[in-house]
Amino acid sequence: MRRIVIFIFIISCTFIHFGATEENNNQNPFGFKFELGLGTETLPIDPKAPLESTNLATYQKLSLKPDISFGKIGVGLDVTVHFNIKPGQDGSDIEVYEPDWIPEKADKTFLELYLPKFAYIRYGQKGDALFAKFGSFDDGTLGNGFIMGNYSNTRFLPETRIFGGALDIDGQFFNFPYLGIETFVGNLAKFDVVGSRLYVRPFAGTEYPLLKHLQVGATVASDTDPLRYASEAFKSAIGTADTVTIAGLDTKLPVLNTPVVSMAAFSDLAFEPKGRWGSMAGVGGKLINMVLYGAQLRLLGPDFIPTYFDGSYDLFRHLKYAALQEDAAGSIYAGWLASIGFSLLSDAIIFQTSLDGPFKAPPSELGSINDYPHLRGVFTIAEGLLAGFSFDALYEKYYLGAPSPVGSGNFWKDLVSQENAVIGAKFNYRTGPAIISLLYNLRYDPQSGDYVVTSSLMSAIQF
Fold first, then answer.
1. CB 306: neighbour CB atoms within 10 A?
2. Which of 41, 90, 140, 361 could lock onto 151 through a cystine, CB 3.0 to 4.6 A?
3. Are 403 and 420 in contact (CB under 8 A)?
4. Does the record's keyword annotation contain Signal (predicted)?
């Protein structure tokens, strides 16, 4: 432990000196931030055991987070040591949390354990002609999001960080606007959730103001390990799991782009295993440059699951896979999605919520996950608006209005219940170079029927 602390101290001093030197060199668009943090964090005692309240303990935390950028290129590291100081016969002993460094203790491969030491690596931003990002994601989306939308690989933070990747290349980068591709991998160490979208602009060379921006795309997304986070009992009941592959076609057309209103129209047709299919058409955009809106009408085949790879997919993927094993039953039905929100003060405040579900009444007996409405809301306050405070929050809820034992049978009561919910919040307070952060995550574990709560308290100095 002493060697680790000395090593971190030396690296810290090196980065601080390097950053200060580059800050004085205005000839290069170089950016550097460095964060040295101390705090506490709730982690599983044994990562191989079920993540229940009895398998959680609080550890001290020492972290080193350099963040380097040069133009559109950025790299962030997250080197963290968790430990506890315990009294021993000859004084105090320092117990290092071994799953941070030993793959066997963490029940991970070498890449699973060490790739996440990179918080992120990026080039550009989503929507640029060339965009690449590797690390944590809360917004993994392909096309219109009907197959993969807002996929997140951060659902197991703070105890587990997963390292994913995205690479988008638009032909406009090569002055060839007719073709483009989007790719996404949820976990580069496992390649379990993967997807790609290839699109064309067939009228890019014409002078038609609308049609020249029309995109026609094809998407394929797969999960090679759909029972990855399922309990052993669930795996035994299901048996060997096959790869889930979903494919579809889509269109996207910007219609308006003015300071008063912007609007894009889009449509999708997707196919899931065992003959399941679904389609949708919708619009979305901004009003007076601050009101965010969206609406979709959906025509869905029996037991089709819209946005199969969604924001909380890693928590519910085993339930979705189990639903796919049943033969599709019932009739074609209509569904809907509505979203509303606002973006104020140059995105200093962002709020957006969406609600989707079927038009048909929920079944009297417990049905599948797509028989009930689903809510997702996000809220962000950027630093600088309220003195040194900043805030990020997520609330996602499934099975709204489902009968017992999953729900109460009442939509409004289930809306504020923790059951089948995913709740995340991060509070930050900055005063000068010092930052205090509180991270709180609550998620309902449908396998055990228990709530898993993890939290982290962090104080840091940024240079």
1. 25
2. 140
3. no
4. yes
- pTM equals 0.81
Tokens of 221: 């997304």
Let me know: does 171 contact 178? Beta carbons within 8 Å: yes
Evaluate whether 137 touches 310 at the Cβ level (below 8 Å): no
Measured in degrees and rounded to the nearest 5, phi and psi for residue 102 equal -110, 110
Q: Cα separations (Å) of 260 from 295, 338, 353, 355?
A: 19, 21, 22, 25
Indicate whether 20 pLDDT > 60.
no
Residue 207 has a CB neighbour count (10 Å cut-off) of 7
pLDDT digits (tens, 9 = 90+) for 110-154: 988 999 888 889 998 888 999 999 998 988 999 999 999 999 998
What does the pLDDT average to over 446-454?
A: 71
Count of CA atoms in the C-beta half-sphere (13 A) of 359:
11
Q: So where are the chain's domains?
A: 108-462
Residue 63 pLDDT: 87
Residue 91 banded pLDDT, cuts 50, 70, 90: low
SS (H, E, C) the chain: CHHHHHHHHHHHHHHHHHHHHHHCCCCCCEEEEEEEEEEEEEEECCCCCCCCHHHEEEEEEEEEEEEEEECCEEEEECEEEEEEEEEECCEEEEEECHHHCCHHHHCCCHHHHHHHHEEEEEECCCCCCEEEEEECCCCECCCCCCCECCECCCCCCCCCCCCEEEEEEEHHHHCCCCEEEEEEECCCCCCCEEEEEEEECCCCCCCCCCHHHCEEEEEEEEECCCCCCCCHHHHHHHCCCCCEEEEEEEEEEEEEECCCEEEEEEEEEEEECCCEEEEEEEEEEEECCCEEEEEEEEEECCCCCCCCECCCHHHHHHHHHHHHHCCCCCCCEEEEEEEEEEEECCCCEEEEEEEEEECCCCCCCCCCHHHCCEEEEEEEEEEEEECCEEEEEEEEECCCCCCCCCCCCCHHHHHCCCCCEEEEEEEEEEECCEEEEEEEEEEEECCCCEEEEEEEEEEEEEC
State residue 6's pLDDT score: 41
Residue corresponding to tokens 């929920």: 362
Instruction: Please give the pLDDT value at position 51.
Output: 64
Retrieve residue 214's tokens. Answer: 């029309």
- The CB-side HSE value for 426 (13 A sphere, CA atoms) comes to 14
